[in-house]
Amino acid sequence: MELLIARNPDEASTLPYLLKVPLGDGLVFRARDTWPRTSAVYLHPVWSDEWPDSPEIVERVPVRSCVRRGAAIDLVLDRGRENRSQIVYTMARGREVVFWQSPRTRKQARPQVSTPSARAAGLTDLSVVVDSHERYAYTFAGKPVTVARRALPCGDYGLEQQGHLVASVERKSLADLVASLTSGKLKFALADLAALPRAALVVEDRYSQVYALTRVRPAVVADGLAEVQVAWPNVPIVFCETRKLAEEWVYRFLAAAHVWAVSEALATEQVGKASTPVETAAPTVSQPSTREIRVWARLNGIDVPDRGRLRPEVVQAWHDAHPFPTMPDAE
Questions:
Q1: Model confidence over 277-330: pLDDT tens digits?
Q2: Which of 16, 74, 134, 327 sits between 20 and 30 A of 296, alpha carbons compared?
Q3: Which residues contact 221 (CB under 8 A, 6 or more apart)?
Q4: Is the CB of residue 294 less than 8 Å from the CB of residue 304?
């Protein structure tokens, strides 16, 4: 008996793998991943004829035991590690669903904590933009969050102010993180995020799971994470234990970024006003009336008519006798 995992030839499907379980005539599922390493893998049962005639095999593993026990299938593979798993049929939201889990994912993470119900930063409403390419997006259920879906230039969850993206969070499972790190795509993603005023990368797993990796040397991943964090220190990489805690962290990060963005805009406006030079008007000198100049001219022996305009040289003589006073030097 063998467990077969092949690539799903249907490129439009969101489940990239086909899983063939050697039970009866063979059960075929579409699968999100090749093994339940850090979280249970969602399986979608399909007819056996969906298995391709010439499959692109990803894994072919001998099976020691494959037994159905009630609503579950116990699967034991013939290999040293990652050998025990269970396929479970259950109900969720009124419909039958299938999950593939391992002892590690069952143990993992239900941390004995409950997320707080208090509003982040006291906000009664927070508008979050979710990237339209995010397949399994957070819903922020129970949070005062208004979600809009559209394409983001970077990240999966963004915050906009006056039409500009001011904060963004990239979400990754550990498998996604490792794949993007080893392929080099993570560097480009972090470079884009670093151009924003506030950004972060959240991982839906514990950092300790980096050292439990089997398909990639843990040291390679650990060194790569350290390298990109040093290269882009303004984009923190945050490990959260579960998807639920990661969602909570994203909500509170974006709420804090919203408060910061509003405060920053007000402060910038006030600083701009304070730094704008204020032009002080030059002191003005009251101009004498024609009557005053006529009186002054007669007192000084200058012949002027009783009526009409004064000659220019008379006006100039008055100005020469009354020069503009100089301003004292500022101490």
A1: 555 544 455 567 777 787 778 778 788 787 777 888 888 887 888 765 544 444
A2: 327
A3: 178, 181, 182, 210, 213
A4: yes
